[in-house]
């Protein structure tokens, strides 16, 4: 279960980076998508440590 959590952890970050625009100046919507992906990645990593 822990290995599966660590394997799936980078997926939200990857998906949110592909959905957001790669411009130098992010709009609020793109920044929110990227922040949400990083938040989900952090939750999965903490979950893996706590298991």
TrEMBL record:
GO CC annotation: membrane
Top-level taxon in the UniProt lineage: Eukaryota
Membrane disposition: Multi-pass membrane protein
Main location: membrane
Cellular location(s): Membrane
Keywords of this entry: Membrane, Transmembrane, Transmembrane helix
Pfam families cross-referenced by the UniProt entry: Vps55
Family note: Belongs to the OB-RGRP/VPS55 family.
Protein name, as recorded: 9413_t:CDS:1
Protein's organism: Funneliformis mosseae
């Amino acid at each position: 279960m822990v290995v599966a959590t660590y394997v799936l952890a980078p997926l939200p970050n990857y998906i949110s980076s592909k959905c957001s625009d790669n411009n130098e100046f992010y709009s609020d919507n793109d920044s929110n998508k990227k922040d949400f992906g990083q938040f989900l990645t952090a939750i999965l990593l903490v979950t893996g440590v706590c298991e």
